[in-house]
Structures are given as C-alpha cells and as structure tokens.
C-alpha cells in the first residue's frame, strides 16, 4: 500500500478559533508632506514674528540713517544686510516694520470682510426669496465696480491711513465671501440633518449658527489666506501710487515707489521690498491650497 504525500500550501490565517473570518488589515495611507508647503509656513511664521517683535529686535529705527545713501547690501552689520535706501535708512529695518502694515491690512480686512460676507451669504442662502435677491444684487453691484477705482476714490476723499485702507479693502472682500457662503449654504441647507433640525422646531438662528456655520468654516477658512495675499498686493499697489500709508511710515509698496527711479543703478532698492511681497504672497497662496485640500469637505465629498 503506497502512501501518497500531499503538500498543502497554507495561506495567511484569516479566521479565529471559532471559524469566524476577520477583515484584512489595510495599512494607513501616508500623506506626502510637501517641502514647499513647509517652507511657506516657515516664512509666514518668521515674517509675522519679526513684525510683532520689531521693537525689540536689534534693528535701527526705520526713519534714521544708518549709512550712506543707496548703499549696496553688506555683511558688516545687520542694518546694512540688505543695503540702504535713498536717504541712508536700513532696508531691512524698513521691510520688517513695513510688514506690520501689510500683514495688519491683509489680516484685518480679510477677517472683517469674511465675517460680514459670511453672515450675509448664509442669511441669503438660507432664507432665499426677496432677502436673497437683495443680497445678491448688492454683491453683484460691488463686484461690478472696478476695485482700483474704488480704492483710489476712498483714498482721495478720506485721509490716507491704515483705517482708510482697511475700509476700502474690506469692501472688496465682502462680495466674494457672500457668494462663497451663499453657494455653500444652499448646498448644506438641503441636507437631511437640516431638515431634521427644522422638523424638531429649531429656530433659524440656531440652524444657521449650530448646523450650517460649522460646515462652512473649513472651506471659508481655506479661502482666507488666498484673499489675504490679494489684499497685500492691493495695499502695495495703493502705496506704489502714493495713495497708501503716508511717509515716513514704511510700506513695501511705498519702498518700491521710492526706489523705482534708481532701479537701473541700484536695483536692490526695488528688488528687496519686491522679494518680501513675493515671498509673503507666495507663502499665503501655498498655505491656502494646503488648507483647502486638507479641510475643504467639498473636495472630499
């Protein structure tokens, strides 16, 4: 009697002692971290910290000469690291103090405009009817008005200052957030949990504040850095045209305007503040894209 040997290949154990199967374990997907996004966040942290702590940094006052006029960048001292302007003032010091104006205007106008626009957009998108028609009409009229002409008109009527620029830039931000908040509100208002809350007797204010607003914040918050970047460019444009912050207070756009006549012989007078604007705007756009891909539920849905 011949014995036949059978070879059995055993696979991975997918069952338990009682014969019940278990689901296979799937490793978590690792998200790639972009070096560019890390650099962007680092630059934003550095420029914000420098602007906040400008008074305690070892920098010369932004309105006092520290060397010869139009001196090229030098490593002999911190104040001369980026050179001097046409009056011998430190470009590094003026760029750091100028960051206060740009960041204050960008963040302030962005936050105020987003808050007002979000409230109006939510009310119009949820109530609809005549209320929605009036809000849409106002937003469309504000979008149709040329932004630069509006800013120049405000600067001509009012005294050029930080509050004046904040008012003008806030008016530019509101209609964009009205449209974004209204579109998202229309989408979320038709969901089942909103219908359930309405059936249970929840008030309109509670539905807007407790149910709809938390779902709008991720997408609106991801859009905010991009808006702030555009506001910084708008403030720089006003200062370049002489309608921004009056001297001797520094601003990046004003520094570009002061050095434009000498750009052929002394390019650093224009390139240094331009580099600060470019890096800050680029970093804000990178941060906005990163936040949008991470927190915007519309993309994941």
Written account of the structure:
By secondary structure, the protein is mostly helical. It is built from 10 helices and no strands. The longest helix is centred in the middle third of the chain and has 37 residues, at 91-127. Mean pLDDT is 83; it is low at 1-21.
Condensed summary:
With 301 residues, the chain is mainly α. The protein has helices spanning 35-52, 91-127, 129-144, 147-157, 162-189, 192-199, 204-240, 252-259, 268-295, 297-300. Mean pLDDT is 83; it is low at 1-21.
As a whole number of angstroms, the C-alpha radius of gyration is 28 Å
Described by strand count, sense and barrel closure, the largest sheet is:
none
Q: State the shape.
A: elongated
Binned, the helix content reads 55-70%
Kindly, what is the distance between the CA atoms of the first and last residues, rounded to a whole number of angstroms? 67 Å
Strand content: under 5%
Helix run count: 10
Rounded mean pLDDT score: 83
pLDDT below 50 for ≥5 consecutive residues: which ranges?
1-21
What is the β-strand count? 0
């Amino acid at each position: 009697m011949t014995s036949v040997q059978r070879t059995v290949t055993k696979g991975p154990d997918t069952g338990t002692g009682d014969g019940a199967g278990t689901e296979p374990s799937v490793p978590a997907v690792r998200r790639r971290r972009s070096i560019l996004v890390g650099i962007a966040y680092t630059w934003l942290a550095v420029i914000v910290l420098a602007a906040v702590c400008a008074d305690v940094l070892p920098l010369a006052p932004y309105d006092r000469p520290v060397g010869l006029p139009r001196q090229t960048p030098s490593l002999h001292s911190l104040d001369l690291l980026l050179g001097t302007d046409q009056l011998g003032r430190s470009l590094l010091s003026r760029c750091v103090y100028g960051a206060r104006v740009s960041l204050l205007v960008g963040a302030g106008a962005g936050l105020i405009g987003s808050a007002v626009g979000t409230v109006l957009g939510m009310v119009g998108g949820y109530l609809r009817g005549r209320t929605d028609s009036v809000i849409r009409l106002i937003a469309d009229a504000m979008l149709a008005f040329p932004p630069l002409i509006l800013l120049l008109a405000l600067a001509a009527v009012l005294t050029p200052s930080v509050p004046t620029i904040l008012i003008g830039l806030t008016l530019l931000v509101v209609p964009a957030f009205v449209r974004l908040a209204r579109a998202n509100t229309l989408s979320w208002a038709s969901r089942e949990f909103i219908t359930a809350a309405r059936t249970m007797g929840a008030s309109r204010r509670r539905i807007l504040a407790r149910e709809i607003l938390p779902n709008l914040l991720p997408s609106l918050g991801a859009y905010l850095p991009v808006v702030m970047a555009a506001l910084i460019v708008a403030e720089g444009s006003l200062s370049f045209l002489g309608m921004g912050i009056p001297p001797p207070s520094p601003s990046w756009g004003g520094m570009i305007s002061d050095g434009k006549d000498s750009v052929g012989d002394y390019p650093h007078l224009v390139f240094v503040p331009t580099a600060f604007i470019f890096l800050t705007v680029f970093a804000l756009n990178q941060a906005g894209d990163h936040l949008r891909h991470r927190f915007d539920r519309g993309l994941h849905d």
